[in-house]
Inverse folding.
């Protein structure tokens, strides 16, 4: 059965940029809810319990029709949040270094221009959703936005290495309707070491 992963830091570790109460509710209520509903969806299909969440969502059409939507929504929610927690940390922020920085400059012109495009994608996502930095099949960096709990794994559009949650539950207690302020503050908690590790793995 799928399980809620522990946060790699305390609820208040990302203060003041993301408040402790939001982190507690986001992780223990919202993410746990996706895990619970995913387990319910696959419960009557023992063979599916052996698969990873990535295996389930990467081939949605292969699933029994009656659970496809539930797995897309809740498996996507489980995968997206599990990644989201890892690419943030206490004392994060700053600038990416090394090969990732070079690749961002080559693709977007500069790291700042990448942040601008990523931030605009996140802030401009209509309704609930996510913004992603992915390594595409041709090993190029690409910024994407997805609605609801969709992601690049479901779409087959690349390997995610950076993601921000722009569902209102991710920021509303502190930022209310000011999503752009949340996105701007979020750069201060990005765990670039983890992003670089994922970038290097995607290229290998």
């Amino acid at each position: 059965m799928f399980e809620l992963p522990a946060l790699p830091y305390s609820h208040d570790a990302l203060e003041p940029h993301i408040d402790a109460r939001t982190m507690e509710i986001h992780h223990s209520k919202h993410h746990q809810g996706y895990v619970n509903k995913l387990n319910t969806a696959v419960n009557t299909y023992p063979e599916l319990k052996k698969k990873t969440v990535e295996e389930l969502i990467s081939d949605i059409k292969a699933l029994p029709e009656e659970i496809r939507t539930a797995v897309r929504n809740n498996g996507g929610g489980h995968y997206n949040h599990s990644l989201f927690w890892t690419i943030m940390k206490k004392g994060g922020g700053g600038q990416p270094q090394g090969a990732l920085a070079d690749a961002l400059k080559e693709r977007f012109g500069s790291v700042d221009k990448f942040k601008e495009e990523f931030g605009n994608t996140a802030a401009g996502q209509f309704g609930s959703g996510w913004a992603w930095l992915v390594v595409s099949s041709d090993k190029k960096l690409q910024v994407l936005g997805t609605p609801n709990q969709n992601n690049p794994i479901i779409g087959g559009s690349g390997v995610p290495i950076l993601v921000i949650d722009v569902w209102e539950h991710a920021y509303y207690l502190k930022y209310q309707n000011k999503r752009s302020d949340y996105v701007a503050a979020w750069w201060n908690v990005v765990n670039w070491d983890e992003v670089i590790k994922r970038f290097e793995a995607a290229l290998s």
